[in-house]
Specification:
It comes from Gemmobacter nanjingensis. InterPro entries: Rhodanese-like_dom (IPR001763), Rhodanese-like_dom_sf (IPR036873), Thiosulfate_sulfurtransferase (IPR051126). Keywords: Repeat, Signal. The chain is of the alpha/beta class. It contains 10 helices and 9 strands. The strands form 2 sheets. A 5-stranded parallel β-sheet has the order 1-5-4-2-3. Strands 7-6-8-9 form a 4-stranded parallel β-sheet, covered by helices on one side.
Length: about 300
């Protein structure tokens, strides 16, 4: 695949114009908007691994991020549909009700957890989905009420099917790398991973996909901010990535976490069509015999491991 030309943007962090909210909420919601939406009774999913017992948004259901992830050796893998169905039922989820996803919001990388859960639910047939921008931290900083009363949801009975419209699997990505199909490959990782100087612990090899462009997830945040920035120039972003009409875009990273932020920004905020997430990403791909770019030699790779890629 021919490497696409890099066209720099000034202020990618100022990326998107405010998105019109579907069903009164929408893909991105502020603490004030969520507080005002209580009459609509959205289901609030608190996906933090810890901190729920110490304080959470009133009515929120504890749904740790790990419920939506794969096993330790391949954490980006999507759980089997039947397992997801059981999880949704135990959480009292109902596709007919809006769902708001709340992460901790203490770092910019934390946003990827909320975006990944959003993507998983959307692919499972949920349509009224929102991420609380800034997470539980933004809610607390806004001085809004905190509860310590745990919520035990009433189980639901669901039949879930997976819609792969927003999914790229390893076979599909391998076809792109082999030139059998076309897609714009977007590596959401920090540059050190893209350049092959660092690798995830579960990855078999460092490097990136041939022809990929590096669009680090951090570019969607102002420096030091933990809430994604919803304003900016979508046309400039599309020009930078070379996205034309009907082009397919695949966002990837190590385990589909950082890539979920890029997917969310491109698909849900910028409104770009045909954007897919490669959930298993480089951890799974690196264990295949597929071609990789920016893969260092044995000595350089060893040196990078010893120095941390610096």
């Amino acid at each position: 695949m021919t490497r696409l030309a890099f066209v720099p943007l000034s202020g990618l962090a100022a990326l998107f114009a405010s998105t019109a909210f579907a069903a009164d909420l929408g893909p991105l919601v502020t603490p004030a908007e969520l507080a005002a939406a209580s009459a609509d009774a959205p289901i609030i999913l608190d996906i933090r691994a810890k901190g729920y017992a110490e304080g959470h948004i009133e009515g929120a259901v504890s749904a740790p991020y790990g419920l939506f992830r794969g096993p330790e050796e391949n954490p980006g893998a999507v759980p089997p549909v039947e397992k997801l169905e059981e999880t949704y039922e135990s959480l009292g989820l109902d596709p007919a009700r809006p769902v708001v996803i709340v992460s901790q919001g203490d770092t910019d990388t934390d946003f990827g957890a909320a975006a990944r859960v959003y993507w998983t639910l959307k692919s499972s047939g949920f349509t009224e989905l929102s991420v609380l921008n800034g997470g539980a931290t933004a809610w607390a900083n806004a001085g809004l009420p905190i509860s310590t009363t745990a919520v035990t949801p009433a189980p639901t009975d669901l039949t879930i099917t997976w819609n792969d419209t927003w999914t790229a699997d390893t076979a599909a990505v391998s076809d792109v790398v082999a030139g059998k199909s076309k897609a714009i490959l977007v590596d959401a990782r920090p540059p050190a991973f893209f350049e092959g100087k660092k690798a995830a612990p579960a990855a078999a090899r460092p490097g990136t996909l041939p022809g990929a462009q590096n669009l680090p997830y951090t570019e969607f945040f102002r420096a030091g901010a933990t809430a994604i920035n919803p304003t900016g120039d979508v046309a400039a972003l599309k020009a930078r990535l070379g996205i034309g009409a009907n082009d397919e875009v695949v966002s990837f990273c190590n385990t589909g976490h950082w890539a979920a932020t890029d997917w969310f920004a491109l698909s849900e905020l910028a409104g770009i069509e045909n954007v897919r997430l490669y959930p298993a990403s480089m951890v799974e791909y690196s264990h295949t015999d597929g071609e990789m770019a920016n893969q260092p030699g044995l000595f350089t790779n060893l040196l990078n491991q010893l120095t941390g890629g610096n």
